[in-house]
Amino acid sequence: MPIVSAQSLSFSYELRDEEGNVSEHIDALKNVNLDILEGSFVTVLGANGSGKSTFAKQLNALLVPTGGTVFVDGMNTADESHLLDVRKTAGMVFQNPDNQMIASNVEEEIGFGPENLGVPPEDIWKRVNAALDAVGMNAYRKASPNRLSGGQKQRIAIAGIVAMEPKCIVLDEPTAMLDPGGRREVIRTLHALNKTRKVTIILITHYMEEVVDADYCFVMHQGELVMHGTPREIFSDVKTMRELSLDVPQVTEVAYELQQAGVPLPDGILTGAELTAALTAIRDGKDPAAAVREAGGFND
Amino acid sequence: MIEIKDLTYTYEQGTGYEAHALNGVNAVIPDGQFIGLIGHTGSGKSTLIQHLNGLMKATSGDILVDGTSIYSEHYNMRKLRSTVGLVFQYPEHQLFETTVLKDVMFGPKNLGLSDEEARDRARKAMELTGLSGERFENASPFDLSGGQKRRAAIAGVLAMEPKVLILDEPTAGLDPQGRDEILSLIRSLHETRKMTVILVSHSMEDVAEYVERIIVIDTGKIRFDGSPREVFRHYRELEALGLAAPQVTYLMHDLADAGFAVDTDAITVGEARESILKSLPQFGGTV
Fold first, then answer.
1. Using CA atoms, how far apart are residues B8 and B51, in angstroms rounded to an integer?
2. What is the ipTM of this complex?
């Protein structure tokens, strides 16, 4: 059973003018159908206004569909009796860590979630410890959140969710405000959670290089799901990505530009190691695609 | 020209929490330069830019704008704030008026200009940022898209006709197209209006593509100051400072290690393409 299943999901809302009359009807999501497998690491790409944040809010019932259905771990998000269980299953992390910090020290911050769930105190401490370990922030447990760096704050926000032991974490542009080091920390933490604790990660991002190591990728455009596939499949289509106001990782772009200049490179090169292997093969008169496979690429 | 001389800013001076946000910063910013200011969160870069338009006052050291210390007696701070325009992070959060035109006029009106002059300037600024026409003038700023809101906020600063434009992460949270629009706008302001631009950014790729000089700040001190090529040569040291080099830099080093005669100083996609083609005997000279 998929952890998330959207079936003919639509979401629309109305804008009203000062007199309360409907002035505009907005279809933020249009007939979205997708499944996300439990334990996978998926990314959602899309231009501003493509509906990806609206989609994210459907996953923990901050919004419920106006058409179609969303199931989270088999529960219909529109069924109010499941509200708490849906939110326990799918935790959310937002863009700005400062908006998510409420406590005066890190361990209280992380304990807030489980405490609200009614977890007994001794178990709360166990969960806080486990969550701090999971994000590598044990050394900062007594620190004040507002004295941490952006990347550290975001890891604490993630730990606060981890302590609620969700099966799935949805992150809406968690690295948009971070420096390169902070971005690395957060992405590494998410992959570790996914690998060691089998938490399903749903990452919404504008940074194409954060998508490269994901299992699967969804691309939204004007409320519709327009592309889905492995990162390699998605980034093989540089032209379409550009048409959707998106981008590809810089290495993929270099490979694409070289292809345009006549270098016989295969589509869908994602990493420097892959491009180096392919170019070495071309220089030495060998098969570039085979070289990329040998370098560990193209096996997904 | 802006001269920053031994600038130091100390928080909670004389207490146990005393900390130097800036610690002896020296730099000269000539007119018309396009500078990238990089550093990890908390490195002191936001503190530095707030000093440049007088929002914060140094604990010691000096800033000279066109030869005059901004800390000298009777210095016209109001004029400084119109000379050095500062666009904060997420500037669209500061939009507040009922129409875009009124919002953009707010700055020039605060400078004491008449309604008419302020309106002229606002219209010019809106044209520069691609928001011209009645459609935008009368629109509520809150009905604009994310990228448009940000351009409206930038127009508000441009309407004060600054000589120096400082932008604190102007592309944060924008999609790739929105990012390219803002950066091309900034480049054209620099090129056509000869504006001095200081771009604070966490995107090494953007900095590599657009600026002519990079200043790296860490623990309140300038660690590197030079052309993008020079600065990104220190990519290992930059990583230790919580920064990085553009992805292309890593690719070029991989290729050099594999025996390709490529330029490891290439920092943009265009430069990488050219250098790689030259290094492939079959494609040499096809550029």
1. 10
2. 0.86
In the numeric block, the tokens 């440049």 are attached to B52
Residue B69 and residue B149: Cα distance in Å, rounded?
A: 35
Residue at A150: amino acid letter? G
Is there a contact between B190 and B34 (Cβ–Cβ < 8 Å)?
yes
User: Which among A101, A89, A88, A91 has a CA at the least distance from the CA of A157?
Assistant: A101
What are the tens digits of pLDDT across the range A204-233? Answer: 999 999 999 999 999 999 999 999 999 999
CB-CB neighbors (< 8 A) of A48 in chain B: 145-147, 173-175, 178
The pLDDT score that the predictor gives to residue A188 is 93
Strands A4-16 and A67-72: antiparallel
What's the pLDDT tens digit per position in B197-219?
Answer: 999 999 999 999 999 999 999 99
- Give CA–CA dist B244/B248, Å, rounded: 11
Q: How far apart are CA B183 and CA B163, in angstroms?
A: 18
Q: How many angstroms separate the CA atoms of B230 and A103, rounded? A: 43
Distance CA(A176)–CA(B175), nearest Å, equals 10
Cβ of A49 and B145 within 8 Å? Answer: yes
- The one-character DSSP state at B234 is T
Residue written as token pair 């907005």:
A26
Q: Distance between CA atoms of B20 and A202, rounded to whole angstroms?
A: 39
Chain B residues within an 8 Å CB radius of A280: 258-260
Domains of chain A and CATH, by start: 4-230 (3.40.50.300), 249-300 (no CATH)
> Residue B159 burial (CB < 10 Å; 0-12/13-18/19+)?
buried
When scoring A152, A187, A275, A276 by the number of chain B Cβ atoms within 10 A, the one with the most, hence best to mutate, is: A276
Q: How far is CA A53 from CA A34, A171, A182, A211, B169, in A?
A: 16, 9, 22, 17, 21
Rounded Cα distance, B70 and B80, in Å? 8
| Contact yes or no for B255 and A283 at CB 8 A | no
